[in-house]
Every structure is written in structure tokens, then in C-alpha cells.
Amino acid sequence: MRGYVAFVKKEFMENTRTFKLLILFAVFFIFGMMGPIMAKLTPEIMKSVDMQGMQFTIPEPTALDAYIQFFKNNGFMGLVILILIFGGTLTKEYTKGTLINVLTKGLPRKAVIFAKYTVASILWTLSLLISLLTTYGYTVYLFPNDKVYNLIQSVGCLWIFGLFLLAVIMFCSTIVNSSSSCLLLVTIIVGALLIINIVPAVQPYNPMLLASDNVSIMVQNYDFSDVIKSLSVTIAAIVGLIAAAVLMFNKKKM
Amino acid sequence: MEILKVENLSKSFGTHKVIDGLSFSVDEHTIYGFLGQNGSGKTTTMKMILGLLKADSGTITVCGEKVTYGETKTNKYIGFLPDVPEFYGYMKPKEYLKLCGEITGLSKVAIKQKSEELLKLVGLTDVNRRIGGFSRGMKQRLGIAQALLNEPRILICDEPTSALDPVGRKDILDILLSIKDKTTVIFSTHILTDVERVCENIGMINDGKLAISGNINELKEVNRHDIIYIEFENENDRKLACTCLEKLEGIKEITSEKNSLTIKVNDVKKTGKSIIHKIDGEQIYILKYEILEPTLESIFMEVVQ
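ok -> C-alpha cells follow
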């Protein structure tokens, strides 16, 4: 436990001093801000473009448009940035050899996995929260009369999907030896999830659902049965991936 | 008391057998030199002792406890200095020692006290910048400090001096000598002068096996050959001396170099006297007369060949 706590502290220091924390927070803040502003401004922009006499009718933007933008940014670019920032968190330590000292000091190997996963998860949670609060604040200000449904549930799904991706990164990092091969492996796994999504029977159980159906969740009286199936599979996968990462890491040559 | 015992250790990487039935032991409170050529398996052996690599067969016992791979309980007795110690570049030396201290479970007060003491020992007291900008020598010193933090009974150093300049090397060797009373030091190297300076016992590894081992002085005694080295003023004198010595009794072999002769004899004292007498009789001037002591280098060369 003490090794875990010490390593968690070290991870926080690392992410702060190597500016990863700053980058994450800044990017997610910008994403949060962009959603409502883009939703509000798009019709204005379209109006100012010379359409050479063509007529477009653009519906009046609503708060939902702001959240559509929010999920577009965070659900794709945000996750990509998450993978890029944390893709090398473990592999970089092997390639540089920085783990040798701490492991020979008696740090249990599983503490490394748990600490890294904890800190990455906390930073992801905070980033998403920053983004959500920013979007929420701007949306309330710019679209004061609109009502949205199931916002927390929808963002919660994206949050769990982020945790799932981080678990995939942890697991992949214990199999391969370099950051680039780890990123490749994560991409392959996500790609495979996208491919099997073609089969309709698989869709409700696919973790991808949590990152793709966020907007459709945000309607009144949404039926959550599919989401619950996907959530259960995803949470089980997170636990399984972390357990597998610990097992693999225990066998890793240093 | 044997603090480390390695028995019948074997390890292959693919088809390449690096360690093949290696056995040796190290006594407490000694500095043990672990020698071998580059790629002879020194680092591999050390990593197996630390449980970082899995041995194919054989046992390793540290302070009476068996080493198991992955689960490294025996590491609480060991401080390890890797050949190129790597640190978190964004930390300052004190912060790094604090991390190590917390991992080992030292109290806050103990960490502070120990850190100051060790940074003083390795000469990094006033260095308050990030490790990222450290030179190799400074990293090596910090490496020693972190390795000694939990007051280990064994300090294992993997080629601690190989990459350092003469001043840095001397500093590191002095540190190793100064901690000898508290800690057993095992140190691998191929720099033989370092070994001669600090080690009492050595083990030399070749082809994955222990080629020779024991006390340095005893090893030299055993490997003593009766060899006389004579240096002359010029080549001509050497040639003259060579011809007049050829028929002398008791000489086994003469090797000529530019201005010198290396003569293997049966009995240094007896034959030596007659050699000097003979050369003197020819009116040849001797620049230097030396009875060669076996060096670690000559032993090393013999083993390697």
C-alpha cells in the first residue's frame, strides 16, 4: 500500500512537471468552450457566406446542438488525446529503465499498474469534468430556455468508455515494449471493436456504444436497456484488463 | 558468513546460452569483484539475483532466503546500482530519494536524515536542480545514494565505473571503500585496475561459467610464473644479450621486444644471478631489471584465451 501511495504521488508529480496535466486540462477546457459557441455561431457564419442566391434554411440552434458539438470533440479528439498522453506511461518506463531502481527498492509490480491506472483515471475524470462544466456554463448562458435530458448519464457513458480505453492502454503496455507498438495495439483493438459493431446483435454489448450513442441518449424517455448491457460488458472488461495487465507485468523481463 | 550464494545457475536467451551452471558465493563485509568480458553475462547474473530476470535453472540465496522471480522479497537486503542508472528527470535528487524512501517504508524523519547523509557521502549536497541535467558521473553518484538508502546488507553495482572519467572513477571507488564496513559490495567490471584497488575477492566469468575465483593475492600467488624482464639501452645491446643468454642453463623461453627481453626461467633467484653475471661479463648496460609479478590482467587474459 505504501508503495502504491508513493507511486501515485510520483505519477501526479510527473504529469504536472511534464505538462501533461496542463495540456489535458487546457485541451478539454477548449473543447468544452467550443461546443456551445460553435452551436451559437454556425448559423451566423452560414449567413455571412455568400451563397450566390441559394437559399438555406438553418434551424435555430438549441442547447442540444451545443452538446452534439461537445460529444463530437470529446468523444473523438478528446479520446485520441487521452490515448496519446497516456499511451507511453508504462512503456516509457521500460525503455528508459526507470523502473529498475524502484522495483529493486521493493515496490510491488502490481502497485505500478494500479498507481498508473488510478492517476490516469483521475486526470481523465477531471478533464471531462472541466469540459462538461465549461459546456454546461456556456450553454446555460447562451441557450437559457432550452432543456436537455439525460446529460449526466450520457457523459457518464463517455467517462466509462475513457476508463475502458485507459485499461486497454495498461494491458497493451504490458504486452509490448515500446510506446509506438502500444499505440498501434490500442488502435487495433479499438478498430476491431468498430468492425464487430457491424453485426447488429453485437452492438448492445459493444463498449463502443458508450462513446457513440451519447447524443441519442439525450432524449426524454430513452430506453437504457442496451446501454446497461454495454456498461456491464465494459466494466467487466476494465476489471479483466487490469487483472491481466498485473499478471502480464509480473512476468515481464526488466 | 556467506551473504550471497549462487548455485548451478543457467540462463539462455533463445539458443544462446549466456550462463551455464554458474556457482559462486560472497562473504559478508567484503568487496567482491565480478569480472568478465563485455557480454559474458555479468549483468544477466545480477538481474537474476535481483529477480528481474527468470533463471532457467539453479538457485540464488540472499541472506539465507531464496530469490524468486517477479516477487522480490529478498530485494530488501539489496541495494542495486545499474550500469546506467536512470531516474525521473523532472525530480530533484532529494525528491527522488524521498520517493525511494517512501517505497521502502522509511519514516519521514529517517528519509530526511538518510538523504542528507547520503547526498553528503556522494558529494551532491548542494545540487538542487533537476536530475534531467545531470552528467553521467552525477547520476552514478545519485545511483549509489539511492542504492544505499535502505541500508542494504548487499550493494550490487553493475559496472559503476566503466563510463566515468578518472576523477569520477576514483570518487566512486572511494565511496565503495568507505561503506565496506557496513555493506557487502559486489561489483562487476572489466576495468581491472579498479578491481585491484578495492576488491579482496574476485570471481571471473567466462563462457557462462566461473573460470576462477578467490582472494586476489592468493590468485596471483597461484598464477605466479618465474619471469624476468630486462630492458636495455638500445636494440643492439638487446641483440647481444639475447645471443649470449641463449645457451645459459635454466632458461625456458626468451621473448624479444625492441629494447627488452622477457625471460621465463626455472628459478628466479639462481638463474637471475647468472643472467646478470653473464650480461655484465659482456659489458652490456642494463637499464631495468625486474622480476615480473602476475597481474590481474595477465590472469584475465589467460582465462579469456
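The two ends of chain A are 22 Å apart (CA to CA).
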